[in-house]
User: What shape does this take?
Amino acid sequence: MTAQLRARGDVAVLVPAAGAGLRLGPGGPKALRLLAGEPLLVHAVRRVAAAPSVRLIVVAAPAAEVEAVRELLAPVAPVTVVAGGAERQESVARALAQVPADIEIVLVHDAARALTPPDLIESVAAAVRDGHPAVIPALPVVDTIKEVDPGETVLGTVDRSVLRSVQTPQGFRHDVLAAAHAAAADHLTDDAGLVEKAGRPVICVPGSELAMKITRPLDLILAEALLNLG
Assistant: This one.
C-alpha cells in the first residue's frame, strides 16, 4: 500500500541518493543496494513517509536511474524524483529547487540511514518549528579519540565530552538552507557545515542508534539484524 503524505504538512524531505558508495563494495549505486531484499532507499523513504509532518519527499537519483527509481518508489509513497549531480551538494541543490516556497521546513536525509525512525524526523522538524534555523541529530562519542600527527604519533587525547557523532535528517528553515547553498564556494558533504560557514547557529537534538549510517558490508549485516529484531 502506498503511504499518503500529509497535504497540510509543513516539511519537505530531500534524499540525495546519487552516490556510488564505494566503501560498501561493488554493486551499483549505494542507495539501491539491498537490505533484507529491498533497496536502502525504499527502507529510508518508507520511514520518512510515516512521519506525520511530511508533505513532500524529493529524491535525487543517479541520472541514469531516474525513471527506475520513480517506479521503485511509486508503491511506497508519492515521491518527486530528480537527477542528482556529481557531488552530494549539487544533488541537494537540485532537490531543493523542487520545494515550494510555502514549505518552511526542509530536512536533508541520507538514504544510507535507512532505519531512521519517524520519531527522529519529527523531533528535528519540531526543533526547526520552534525557531532554530538549523538542527542536527547527534549522539555522544563513546570511543576514546586521539589526535595524531602525519606519522601516526599520538599528540594527545581529545575531550570526547564536547564531541558529537552527527546523523541525519538535518533540518533547516527553507530560506536558511537555500541561502547557504547559494553562497557555497566549496563542495561539502554536510549541509549543516554550509550553514555554519554562513554564520548561522546549528543546534543538536538527541539522535537515534537506529539512524546508523550503512557504509560498509558489516553495516548491512547489523542493519538486517536490527530489522529482524523488530
